[in-house]
């Protein structure tokens, strides 16, 4: 294959390699990339020469910054629901393929890993983070919700950490990702190329020999506050508890919550609570249904406009305040 391909696949030793190769777009996933990943995983599933799969992102800025939300916004605005359905159906099917893959699948994450990038990595048994890894589910900022199985994943992180991350969209960096349960190994960037080469010769045994001792979890001092504030039943009660906390950490969380879509906070909290009792497959099915109802809300097109298209970072949310979100409107998104 040529380097022009947005997904480059190769075999080395006993591993199959997938390189997400769209570095100028932070390796964000479009439909052809999803299809290329799905096709090669299908091929390697039954290839006796491939014992394991290693996936990486090109460039030093991102593993994968998410999905092609610009195209999804265009599809939504032109009434092309079939295009969005196609994208999400194939993306979520790939997430499930990775979660249930019969061979070791190892994601090397050295840079941003958001949204769809989490879907290509965190469901797998091995996720290596460098000190430059930055994990986030920032969809409330674009009037959407944490999908790609995140409604299954986030409720299973320690305590209410997943609720905190899914609502605020805040980033977990480097070794913190291992403490949070998003990554499984911590390897510095300077040793990552060595690890990648060693995987082809030694298989997954190389993971243990190339990992570094974990520095302390930077959120340790906030774990109790996270669990207290983010275990509340409603978004308004979460805000009340953060306001009562009066710490620098709580101020930062409040600032994040006040920037994102108030409606998305409500539907995301509800989706995360529901995900506690679902299997990954059920969560993905429920998320698929929720893409149809939430994308029809004006906050999705407006959020993508403000954060990705125009980049003014000044979305006009409807409604603009958390207290003004109508529970009846949120209920309707989950009906049927
Ligand atoms: C919130 C998000 C996303 C985002 C920005 C946000 C997201 C996403 C992208 C993105 C990044 C680079 C690209 C691209 C999209 O940005 O999900 O096409 O090249 O995919 O504030 O949820």
Give structural notes.
The protein is α/β, with parallel strands linked by helices and 336 residues long. The protein has one domain: 2-enoyl-CoA Hydratase, Chain A, domain 1 (Alpha-Beta Complex), CATH 3.90.226. The chain is built from 16 helices and 10 strands. The protein has helices at residues 31-45, 69-77, 81-99, 116-119, 150-153, 161-168, 176-180, 189-202, 205-209, 223-230, 235-245, 248-259, 262-275, 280-295, 298-309, 327-333; strands at residues 7-12, 15-20, 52-57, 62-64, 105-109, 112-114, 126-129, 134-136, 172-173, 185-186. A 6-stranded mixed beta sheet has the order 1-2-3-5-7-10, with helices on both faces. Strands 4-6-8-9 form a 4-stranded mixed beta sheet. The relative contact order is 0.12. 3,5,7,3',4'-pentahydroxyflavone binds next to helix 2 and helix 15.
- What is the CATH level 1 assignment? Alpha Beta
Query: What are the bound molecules?
Result: 3,5,7,3',4'-pentahydroxyflavone
Count of all domains: 1
Shape: globular
Ends apart, CA distance between termini: 45 Å
| CATH architecture type | Alpha-Beta Complex
Arrangement of strands in the largest sheet: 1-2-3-5-7-10
CATH superfamily: 2-enoyl-CoA Hydratase, Chain A, domain 1
Largest sheet: 6 strands, mixed
Q: What is the H-and-E element order? A: EEHEEHHEEHEEHHEHEHHHHHHHHH
CATH topology: 2-enoyl-CoA Hydratase, Chain A, domain 1
Q: What ranges have pLDDT less than 50 throughout 5 or more consecutive residues?
A: none
- Output the radius of gyration: 19 Å
Oligomer, anyone?
Answer: single chain
Helix-residue proportion: 40-55%
